[in-house]
Amino acid sequence: MSVLAPPKTPTSAEDLVERLMKATLGSVDLLSIYVGDRLGWYRSLLTDGPATAEELASRTGTHPRYAREWLEQQAMTGLLTVASDGAGQRRFTMPDATAQVLTDQSSLSYMAPLSRMMAAVGGQLPALLEAYRTGGGVGWAQFGVDARESQADLNRPWFEQALAAALAGVPAIDAQLRRPGVRIGDIGCGGAWSTIALARAYPQATVDGFDIDPASVQLARTNVESARLTDQVSIHGGDAASIPEASFDAVFAFECVHDMPRPVEVLDAARRSLRPGGSMIIMDEAVAESFEPPGDDLERLMYGFSIFICLPDGMSHQPTAATGTVMRPETLRDYARSAGFERMEILPIEDFGFWRFYYLPT
């Protein structure tokens, strides 16, 4: 994602109306992408080829009238192309760019899961309003399968395509992970795509993934089994207390520290789980160093995730640090110090999606 300049503060009602109209059109696109993604319409157009509404509905077990309206909307918004055949039937085709962004799970441009995350938010808006009134929360499990699969599938291409090279670009860490008998921990592993990527990048390592969400643990175990890595990778359910002490040479936490209600407690458990000379590597959102509105696209997106998902999830557990998605480097540095780490460095890993890597040596 290219980060654009901050939006201009509207100077007139007309400016704001124009901005909201564009946002509404974007919302319609996102929701229509959710429909095409979940009903298998994009995938059918990719694998089975161009289709009329009746053909697409027949292929996917859906209703032709809805298929026709969706196809026409997709053509109007520019995601599909359309041509009339000799019989006057409209046949719809998916361009290569649309196919890459909305169907190619291995592409770093894959964005279809983002629509699932926003759909999960929509289903919880009444609960979110109640949480905002009372100071309660909406836990990760409440957002359901759409949110769980969205986060796993959005991050998967980056772990599969870019993580090994990113770590290899930091020689000291790469050398540490290549030592014989090395053991790696992955805290908050979610669907385990990070765990799997670490195992593939360092085949001599033993890798243990940990997650507190039972459904994510089951998804992770399924993914590890499908990857045929059960001899190298183990997935564990439980909180920080379940992390064994003095067991790992390196511990990773990918995009999860900001979600933790008690991050200092978890970082302390991670520090105690390290063997002498071990280190912790944290990947979290690459937000700006300080709060300076108006923000660029990345700041706006991360605050969006925060107000709808990450902060309500953090608030669903008490006591809580209530960090939210926008965890700036100094906040993490304070957590690390409180957990017993003496220093924190930002690793020279750039152009890795929305994220920044932090190094916490023992």
Describe this structure in words.
It is globular, with a radius of gyration of 22 Å. The mean pLDDT is 96. It is 50% helix and 14% strand. The protein is α/β, with parallel strands linked by helices and 362 residues long. It has two domains: 13-103, Orthogonal Bundle (Arc Repressor Mutant, subunit A); 116-361, Rossmann fold, CATH 3.40.50.150. It contains 14 helices and nine strands. A seven-stranded mixed beta sheet has the order 5-4-3-6-7-9-8. It starts with 12 loop residues before the first helix and ends with a strand.
Outline of the structure:
With 362 residues, the protein is of the alpha/beta class. 50% of the residues lie in helices and 14% in strands.
Question: Which properties best describe this structure?
Answer:
362 residues; alpha/beta; Arc Repressor Mutant, subunit A; Rossmann fold; seven-stranded mixed sheet; two-stranded antiparallel sheet; 14 helices; 9 strands
pLDDT averaged residue by residue: 96
SSE pattern, N- to C-terminal: HHHHEEHHHHHEHEHEEHEHHEE
Structural class: alpha/beta
Q: Quick one: overall form?
A: globular
Helix content: 40-55%
- Main β-sheet, spatial strand arrangement: 5-4-3-6-7-9-8
Largest sheet: 7 strands, mixed
Unreliable parts: none
What is the CATH-assigned architecture of the largest domain?
3-Layer(aba) Sandwich
Number of domains: 2
CATH topology of the largest domain: Rossmann fold
